[in-house]
UniProtKB/TrEMBL annotation:
It comes from Sesamum alatum. InterPro entries: CYP450_AA/FA_Hydroxylases, Cyt_P450, Cyt_P450_CS, Cyt_P450_E_grp-I, Cyt_P450_sf. The keyword Transmembrane helix does not apply. This is Phenylalanine N-monooxygenase CYP79D16. It is found in: Membrane. Keywords: Heme, Iron, Metal-binding, Monooxygenase, Oxidoreductase. The lineage of its organism: Eukaryota, Viridiplantae, Streptophyta, Embryophyta, Tracheophyta. PANTHER family: CYTOCHROME P450 703A2-RELATED-RELATED (PTHR47949), TYROSINE N-MONOOXYGENASE (PTHR47949:SF4). Its main location: membrane. Heme binds at residue 145. It is a single-pass membrane protein. Its cofactor is heme. GO terms for molecular function: heme binding; iron ion binding; monooxygenase activity; oxidoreductase activity, acting on paired donors, with incorporation or reduction of molecular oxygen.
Amino acid sequence: MLATIDNPSNAVEWAIAEMINQPDILNRACEELDQIVGKDRLVDESDLPMLNYIKACAKEAYRLHPIAPFNVPHVSIKDTTVGGYFIPKGSHVLLSRPGLGRNPRVWEDPLIYKPERHIVNKDSKVVLVDHELCMLSFSTGRRGCPGIVLGSTMTTILLARLIQGFSWTAPSNGPNSIDLVESEGDLLMAKPLIAQAVLRLEPHVYLELM
Ligand code: HEM
C-alpha cells in the first residue's frame, strides 16, 4: 500500500507544484493532452503511450523528489566489486536516492525541474524506470520493483487527469508561487501543496467519472 499509493501521490504532488512555478511546462503538458486526447473526453490508459511529455514530467518528479532518502536496504551475499569499489560479503548496501537523482556529474542543473531532459530525441519513448540507476524510481535487478508497469500507469494517469481536468495556479489569496521546500525528516513537501484548480473541460466530461 505504501509503495503503490504514496509513490505516485508524492511524485504527482511535487510535479504539479513545480509546474505551477514554471507555467511554460504546465502549458506544454496541457497542449500535449489537448492535441492527443482533446477536450471532449477524459484521458484514458490507452492514451498513455502517446503522452511522452506527461511521462517526462512524472519521471522528473521521481528524479528530483524521491519519496525517501534511501532505497530498501540490501545485504551483499558474496564479495563483489561495483564501479571500482570492493563490497565485502555481508555488507549492508544503501543507495542514496537524492545522491543519484541530484548528482551534478550526471545531471545538468540537477536541482532544476526540467522534464525535457528525459526526451533525448523526438522518437525517444520515456519510461519511468531507469535501469542504469542514474536515478532511482523503481530500482533494478532481481530485487527491483515488480510493479513497474502498474506503478508507472498509476502515476502517469493520475498526473494526466489532474492536468487535463484543471487549470492549476497558486492560491489567489497568497504569494503567486508555491513554496518548494522539502521537510527535514524526509523528502516530502514541507507544506503539503495547496493550489487553485479551475475546471478546464466541459461539465459533461467530468460526469464520465460518476
Ligand atoms: C509508482 C509506484 C512504485 C514505485 C516508485 C515503486 C518502487 C519500488 C522500489 C524502489 C522498490 C525497492 C527495489 C529494491 O530494493 O531494489 C520496490 C520494491 C517492491 N515493489 Fe514497488 N514501487 C511501486 C509500485 C509497486 C506496485 C504497484 C507493486 C505491486 C503491485 C509493487 C511491488 C513491489 C514489491 C513486491 C517489491 C519488493 C521486491 C523485492 O524485494 O524483491 N510496487 N518498489
